[in-house]
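Bumping with the actual sequence this time:
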Amino acid sequence: MDVLKHKCFLEELLFWTIKYEFPQKMVTFLLNMLPDQDYKVAFTKTFVQHYAFIMKTLKKSHESDTMSNRIVHISVQLFSNEELARQVTEECQLLDIMVTVLLYMMESCLIKSELQDEENSLHVVVNCGEALLKNNTYWPLVSDFINILSHQSVAKKFLEDHGLLVTWMNFVSFFQGMNLNKRELNEHVEFESQTYYAAFAAELEACAQPMWGLLSHCKVRETQEYTRNVVRYCLEALQDWFDAINFVDEPAPNQVTFHLPLHRYFAMFLSKAVKCQELDLDTILPDQEMLMKLMIHPLQIQASLSEIHSNMWVRNGLQIKGQAMTYVQSHFCNSMIDPDIYLLQVCASRLDPDYFISSVFERFKVVDLLTMASQHQNTVLDSEHERSMLEGALTFLVLLLSLRLHLGMTDDEILRAEMVAQLCMNDRTHSSLLDLIPENPNPKSGIIPGSLSFESVLSAVADFKAPVFEPGGSMQQGMYTPKAEVWDKEFDPVMVILRTVYRRDVQSAMDRYTAFLKQSGKFPGNPWPPYKKRTPLHPSYKGLVKLLHCKTLHIVLFTLLYKILMDHQNLSEHVLCMVLYLIELGLENSPERESDEEVESTGGPERCHDSWFPGSNLVSNMRHFINYVRVRVPETAPEVKKEPPASTSSDGLASSQSSRRKSLQRENSGTAQVFSLVAERRKKFQEIINRNTSEANQVVRPKASMKWSAPGATPQLTTAILEVKESMLSLLIKLHHKLSGKQNSYYPPWLDDVDVLIHPEIPRYSHGDGMTAVERILLKAAVQSRLNKRIIEEICRKVTPPVPPKKISSAEKKTLDKEERRQKARERQQKLLAEFASRQKSFMETAMDVESPDADIAMEIATSEQHVSEAIYDCVICGQSGPSTEERPTGLVVLLQASSVLGQCRNSTEPKKLPTTEEEQIYPWDTCAALHDVRLTTLQRYFKDSSCLQAVSIGWEGGVYVQTCGHTLHIDCHKSYMESLRNDQVLQGFSVDKGEFTCPLCRQFANSVLPCYPGNNVERSLWQSHSNKCMQDLVQEVEDLQEQLGTFPVSISSETNLSKEMESVMKDIKSTTQKKYTDYSKSPGSPDNDFLFMYSVARTNLELELVHRGGNLCSGGASTAGKRSCLNQLFHVLAMHMRLYSIDSAYNPWRKLTQTMQDKNSELISEELPEVPVLYRDVSSLLLIQILTMPQPLRKEHFTCIVKVLFTLLYTQALAALSVKCSAEDRMAWKQSGALKKNTCNGEKSWEVLLGHVVSELSMGKIYEEQETDELTVVNPDSVECYLQQFCLPFLRITSLLQHHLFGGDLPSCQEDEEFTVLASCLGLLPSFQSSDEFTSASCLDWPVPAFDMISQWCSELASFADRHPDQVKALLVQEPKWDLPRLLQLPENYNTIFQYYHRKTCTVCTKVPKDPAVCLVCGTFVCLKGLCCKQQSYCECVLHSQNCGAGTGIFLLINASVIIIIRGHRFCLWGSVYLDAHGEEDRDLRRGKPLYICKERYKVLEQQWVSHTFDHINKRWGPHYNGL
């Protein structure tokens, strides 16, 4: 590091810019001048000159993140220009400076490596705990380095410069062996270090990324020299490393490091050399000894992975699992596990196969397990880990022999295999696939996710599943799922195993595969992983096949087949599966067609007495019979001790301590060839070392091999001879019998069909279980050799005796019993769970299905059967059934919520659009709520307050909606339940203090209990009987009943539990909504207010039910919510409270409707405001007032009588409104035609007559004086009839619903055009149903007193009002009966439209641009989410708006996140997004920046939940917002 000498102002400037850690203004200033070419060059040179100083400042900086960003901001503009980078490289030694600076930077945090020989190690590694690595402080420098290496000319200089390569390898070796893990054997570590994040990041960024950069320039033959250079210096660095850590031939036990960047450099450059540069692999490979050393550490990692998954490292804490996962995770795998496995493949293809195989089993610590004896002692592994370690070793061999990622697959094949593996584990979204496919980190390779090849491969292997909704309300994203032919032909379990981060993903892939086979009818049972044909090996790696054809592997396979057949412990189906897979691989890759068939027949059997197998070809070894095997067993073992017969094979897999004793035997005894994995391996290694004689090394050697004798006393082993008399073929056939559970289940297929041998690829064998696999293997063996075929036939001919039951020692018996018991327990548990799941499912169907007609019908039947008895309720808490009584009332679980949904109805059929320009604005003048509001205020201006408050309904905004899940409970049980919830400290999503709870049975959200009125159903049937009393009598009866207000069932006046509960629920109902929505009277707190509020609650619930039915009653049927309707109970509660308010009989509207009054002119003189004229009163409100003030339960005849009377009023209102709407000429015409027909017999039931009468009566006042323009255009009889029916329909609908709830009985279904007649006859207004052609609405009229007198009386009220306020008369007469259903605002197709308009829009309240803008989807108001600027009395703007706009429910679209949030009262939840990208995925927080389009189905679901008030039930993740949104 030279001293800086400044010669010009620029250098001085840059120096201070660095000193002050790159102030933003200085950075901008220096960058702004870059367009000047001379300045650019000068500045770049100065920057390079100060590079070391930048590094020093960066290391000291406290704000290294900010500083890093600013450095890269500058350097990326300088070094991305190839011309400039080349110039600076040549003139200023840029590469030297960078590499030296990086080296120097890392030197500051080195520690001694503890790998291998802790005391004498000379190797140093970076300390991952240092801030430099933990905070990624080095990344700006590394990223600059990667940036300049992307230029061909610069990379070329680097690869040619030997000195630089040496320095760089020196730098890489600092990371070799960092973050060493030592296995904890005694107690759990106290402190789990998280340094592994830093280690993996450092290797990826500082070593792997530059390596990928360099590799991208080694793609053609001409670059062979570069590869040779890198490989040469890499090997030198590796040799230095082995010397520094004092490595001989055995890795130190219980240690593992996942970081071997030097090995990976070596591997990747080898791969590139063969794949792209056509280099001969052998010319760049080192000698055998070096290869043996090279394979040790990567192999150690593979064995450690298996140990970690076998829970042998559990005392090291979770972080070790984290490392194992990161090592194979998609962003790391192609820089870590893939090069490691490739390097092992290269070593395996060049080393002696017996040596390699025995090394694998020794590393995995399962050598001792591989004995023919039924018992063994493993000195290095606990027995509970043996099974999974053996599985691990075999799986590793399968991976090693099957993977072709670097051994001949093209880039597109690799991409396809990766994609298939990911899709087989789970359906994936497009973005997660992009993330999971290991990106080839070098951008010039052409496989960049998102590139053309990615999309085309994706469409070839997967089908797109559009986003769907589950009934529970959770929304799926658009997913890709594998095509059927992919499951059929391409599913590759090996690739899946390689790429799974979590072991459960392998299971998931197998489950999905099983499901596919069942569904497509290919295989019904539990299949085994399918065997997949591999891409052919590249010629350079042909040596890999030798592994499959070596005696050691064959001995292992034979032993394992034998052990599985004999049911030895610690073996699993997985082991068998892998054994068969290896045999199949061997048959698929046999060297050449065997020519030794003849030899064998001549040479006779003597030749092979001394050893296990005669040759190394699997095809011939499979048929070789092994008669006796000598095994070493503990003295207690059950094996029979025999003298060895003449020819014995010795068990090759005895434990390592006995190896010394065995070698003695080899010299002395001629009886048996003893074969030991470990001994053989040692011998091979020794030979190689002696070949490379170097005395220095000789001195160290013996010491190392002593290390491995196991601690503790060696158990007493004795030799026993086992009689085996099997070959692999015979073992396979017996296994087939064992798997099928039948004797002689295997029958050679070629005996029936010779073609099988010619075309062995039969689809029947491609999917199936173990038996299929065995059949496939035997077929392949037969195809490859005539002798095998003959032997298989022979074995099948000998009727095989059953497998001999072996003598089981008691200890073994225990473990077997235990296994069996566990298996049975597992099966029992599965059965129980399945039963439970089906019960739960059936419960969910009955409880949760919002529109299940069956349940409702069942309910109806149930009620109709119980006519005689009282209603019986089940309490879901105590489980008892019984009637609801005064003392112990039962209640329905209900949710009360304030709702303004009705108020959002508009009278246009087109929904309003969300404004996306300044011109489009939404004004709330035409909403239902606004118009009702205006009407009430107008009435209050001119008429007496108390009568105004009975002339309308409120609750269009902030009305209380009551819904129930249909479950009942005792009210006292509920109180104790609430008490227990209060004491429960668990954080719930609701507030118990506000009375909220979840239904104990179905967990639906609720906040009150509605008492069930103790009534018995007997009365109900009596009340329904039709009487033949005349209209006059009924009218009188109704009036009398209304007079006797006190006669509510006596007990109510005295305080019973029931009446207390009714009062408390009434309080709940009142407090559900805000005061402003209940107080409309001029004198606050007047009883009229309560009266109005109570009948309006009934009105709100009826109107909402109508909305839920689609705005009309054409569909008929029981209430959509059958058992979930609580209106009957609600009416009882309301009626009880309404009867507490007496109506002064003088003002009783019933009188005005049914009697002609004497004209009281005196009223006009008095000071008071007059009462509201009858024709201005809302008929549906009058109906509810009449019904709810009658003693309950009501008789059906009285109900019908009230409806008939009110219909006459409604009809008159319709005629009056019509007369106001039409022109003066029409009025004259009607007046005359009506007068002519007035005296006909049916005058009172003809609309013409009545209309004529109305016109003549109203003409007396000043009503028709001012002519307005909105006239009915054509006035013909049909259009008049239609107008009258439309005017009356809303009333008929509400009345029919009310009748349905009070008296039961289904609503008839009908066509839309006959709804009027059907409802009229259902309500008893139509005496007898006539055919529709002559039907007129007037025929429903049934006047209690002469019609003309009644109409004259009503009209005179209007006339007298018109004299004083002629301007208002008409406005109040013409009501707007037709409302469209409530809708949310219509959203634009493309999200960008919304985003562009709103994300810079200023808030109207604080005139700033909000940080989190949001817009209300009900009314389009723009609000600041969480903005303190718009806070009022501690309420933030969204919460405030949700109260004003939706009475506590708000639906907001968050502009910067594309997500919708719901506010409900004091809670909120994230609902999800209605905008999805082209692949059907959300883009929450707009992180991916993809174009988003509206998903109409999702928006419909949102609207549906809003209208049906089910947000609380469907969305599960609620949290309190503390008014802060």
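The tokens above came from a reply further down the thread. The chain has 62 helices and 25 strands.
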